[in-house]
Amino acid sequence: MAVAALITENFKFMSLFFKSKDVVIFNGLIALGTVAGQTAYTVFAFHCPCSSGRNYLYGLAAIGAPALVFFLVGIMMNRRTWDLLSECRLRKCQKLSGAAAFVLLQIIVGRALVAPLTWVIISFLQGHAYTCALSEFIDPGTLESFPSGQGSEVMAKFPCVESVPTSLQSFWAGIERRLKYESQLIGWLLVAGMSLTVFFMLCVKRCTSPLGDQQEEYWSLYRSHENTLLQRTASVHAQLLAAQNVKSFFGFVALEKEEKEELMEHERANPICSTDWNRITGVYLYREKNGLPLYSRLNKWATYNLENNTEALEKEMDVLS
Question: Where would you find the membrane-spanning parts of this chain (predicted)?
């Protein structure tokens, strides 16, 4: 019974874990995926060239190139990146103050750095790339009883210990231990620095936010639900509009039974003008109207649209926050 209860509780926890929209958990999943990818890469794809002049370049590339790719993918996958570009395209960034731009860039870059920093830290903690890159720079004179007259060409071969003369192979354990110590020290320093930075940024965010903790959490939930419902409704709306146009062209439209029932339930889709699309697209921070919170551009559009005041709607929708 105790085991069954423990399994049930763990299952509930995992269910909540994967259903959660929380940023910290999402970042944690990104980090875990990066750790798995880095481990697989080290096992199956990392092969030190063991050649002077190439070790250093290969080691740097093994750490830096994937990190750069992860960073660019993180930038591209962040919706706020495209919101910022849309803001500059639609409204020429006229309402985007320096402080607002800094906050947005901080959010975009902060999210994008999760995967590359995880890759770099795990690379240093494992030490394979660092050992490969720095092996040729080990000073033979610092190794006890190491034969003199050995250059960087010999030292570069140590990561491939089988290619080193038999008389020198016994020195590899000490060289590897030294390089992994240096590599892991750098890795742990990066972990400490990143942790302090995140803690500092969270403190700054909480201290400068105009909202309390409960309202911040509500705002996060609202954004998540709005985005989910907007995407789901947009999909159905696009399908309805496409069905109408196909039917007007062919005289009929071929739909699955479930699609036909769903489209009949929603009946018709009216086209949305580009002006309204542009009004709900772009950067948004936070704004209130007579003390009433407006949590998004869509929320603001709906609030002012109910007043049927075109002049006020056009004026407010051009405001960033």
Answer: 23-44, 56-77, 98-122, 185-204
Q: What token pair was written down for 147?
A: 């034969």
Q: For the CA atoms of 301, 305, 306, 312, what is the dihedral angle to 10 degrees? A: 100
- Would you state the structure tokens that stand for residue 152, as one six-digit string? 């960087």
Name, in order, each residue with C-beta under 8 angstroms of 78's C-beta and a sequence gap of 6 or more: 108, 111, 112
Helices (H), the chain: 2-19, 23-44, 54-77, 79-91, 98-112, 114-126, 128-134, 152-156, 172-208, 213-250, 257-266, 274-279, 297-306, 310-317
* pLDDT tens digits, one per residue of 54-82: 889 999 999 999 999 999 999 998 888 88
Say how far apart CA 24 and CA 198 lie, in whole Å. Answer: 11
Nearest partner of 279 among 121, 149, 86, 2, judged by Cα = 86
Structure pTM?
0.72
Distance CA 311, CA 319 (A): 13
- Report which DSSP code applies to 74: H
The CA R_g of the chain, rounded to the nearest whole Å, is 28
Let me know: does 129 contact 46? Beta carbons within 8 Å.
Answer: yes
Percent over 70 (pLDDT), the chain: 83
Q: Where are the domains of the chain?
A: 2-208, 216-317
pLDDT tens digits, 275-285: 888 888 877 77
DSSP string, 106-153: HHHHHHHTHHHHHHHHHHHHH-HHHHHHHGGG--GGGSTTPPTT--HH
